[in-house]
Design goal:
Blueprint (H helix, E strand, L loop, with lengths): L15 H11 L5 E2 L14 H6 L17 H13 L9 E4 L2 H12 L5 E6 L5 H7 L3 E8 L5 E2 L1 H7 L4 E7 L11 H13 L3 E5 L25 E6 H4 L8 E6 L2 H18 L4 H36 L6 E2 L7 E5 L6 H12 L1 E2 L1 E2 L10 E5 L4 H10 L1 H4 L3
Parallel strand pairs: 1-12, 3-4, 3-6, 6-7, 7-8
Antiparallel strand pairs: 2-9, 4-5, 8-9, 10-11, 11-14, 13-14
Helix pairs in contact: 1-11, 3-10, 4-5, 4-9, 10-12
Length: 392
């Protein structure tokens, strides 16, 4: 008898919100989607010729596999981070097919089956899936709203699993939009180093800060007494999720860093996932990234400003403070559950928005609205909801 692995879900039944959206679309309703996360479907004008020209490098006709990834591409990634103010070593970079794949490789590197990784709550609902596929457990620790969603070490200590091998951080967190601060980062480094834990830091949204902050840091910044893995990729940096390229940067004590890189190269050599055209195009796409990011940043700022103006100080709703990312968090009156609110917004106003329980918030009623939506659609959504969210 065939038995399927418990690492895959027992059910694939869509949730009530997805079912309702599908029914409305089938009936011809024009929904405004405030869950959009795909920039290539968000109406941006890309430098199409330059993007496609980069794929025509004749070197791509020859297969020359390198476990860590093409050196030229790793140098381009390191140069990108250097331009953003955080040094990266090409020799400490491993290229992957995506950031999700990077997580899988780091879990393979650090964990035996049944080991655990500590994951932040709230955060993007992906860690449990990726860890489960590697036979690894996720144990959540809370980011505290009263500390602007920072990690509190006493809370982390209280939740720490005896078989934990690493702590996952997202900088800035998705969806709360909070960045690591220098003092917090140093304390987390010390906490992890003293307990023999690695730090895995996802920085895919790092470039999308909404304001300057001298205390904000990248996990590439030292010192690194703990073994530290910084993950990023083209999906957000260049808004090119279809050009599958992610990376892992390894920092930490010299001996641990060398062994981690050696073992990661062995893992990478088993997969060799990144195609030659992407490797040869990477440096040119990173050169284009500032011109792609500019319109994205402008839209994020414009949509957030429109949202704050629409809700205003007299509303029973409010926009939670944040420092960056692609999402705005809305706090709704707690007269309904998040699911009831979300279904009301969808069925009565034809506006699709993600309820906070998708991200494991510990309280209600919170909603994550994508700021990536086209401005006209975003403002129409606000107009549809004016009587509900506007000042009373």
């Amino acid at each position: 008898m065939i038995r399927f692995s418990s690492r895959t879900p027992p059910s694939y039944e869509p949730n009530r919100l997805s079912q309702a959206a599908a029914r409305l679309r089938a009936a011809g309703a024009r929904l405004i989607d405030l869950t959009i996360s795909n920039p290539t479907r968000a109406g941006f004008a890309y430098p199409e010729a330059e993007i496609l020209d980069a794929l025509a490098d004749p070197r791509s006709l020859t297969y020359e596999p390198t476990a860590a990834g093409l050196l030229e591409a790793r140098e381009a990634v390191a140069a990108w981070h250097a331009r953003q103010g955080a040094g990266a070593d090409p020799g400490s970079l491993i290229l992957t097919g995506s950031t999700s794949e990077a997580y899988g490789w780091v879990f393979k590197l650090l964990c035996e089956p049944g080991d655990a990784v500590m994951a932040p709550r709230p955060s993007y609902p992906l860690f449990e899936c990726l860890a489960s596929l590697e036979g690894v457990r996720t144990v959540q620790f809370s980011l505290l709203e009263e500390l602007r969603w920072a990690a509190e070490l006493s809370e982390l200590e209280r939740r720490l699993d005896p078989r934990a091998r690493a702590i996952i951080l997202v900088n800035p967190n998705n969806p709360t939009g909070n960045y690591l601060k220098r003092e917090e980062w140093l304390r987390l480094q010390e906490f992890a180093a003293l307990r023999g834990l690695a730090l895995i830091v996802d920085e895919v949204f790092l470039d999308y800060a909404w304001r300057s902050d001298p205390q904000r840091v990248s996990s590439l910044e030292g010192p690194h007494p703990a073994l530290t893995f910084t993950l990023s990729g083209l999906s957000k940096i260049a808004a090119l999720p279809q050009m599958k390229l992610g990376w892992i940067h390894v920092a930490g004590p010299a001996g641990l860093r060398r062994e981690a890189l050696q073992r990661l190269e062995w893992i990478a050599d088993s997969y060799l996932p990144v195609s030659a055209p992407v490797l040869h195009a990477a440096s040119r796409w990173l050169d284009l990234a500032p011109s792609i990011q500019g319109p994205v940043r402008a839209r994020l700022a414009g949509n957030r400003a429109a949202l704050e103006a629409a809700i205003g100080p007299g509303s029973a709703w409010r926009v939670l403070p944040a420092s960056g990312g692609w999402i705005a968090l809305l706090d709704a009156p707690r007269i309904h559950s998040e699911e009831e609110w979300a279904l009301t917004l969808l069925e009565q106003f034809h506006v699709l928005i993600q309820p906070g329980f998708f991200y494991d918030f510990e309280r209600e009623a919170l909603f994550a609205a994508s700021l990536l939506a086209e401005p006209e659609a975003f403002r129409e959504a606000l107009a549809r909801l004016r009587g509900l969210i506007g000042p009373v």
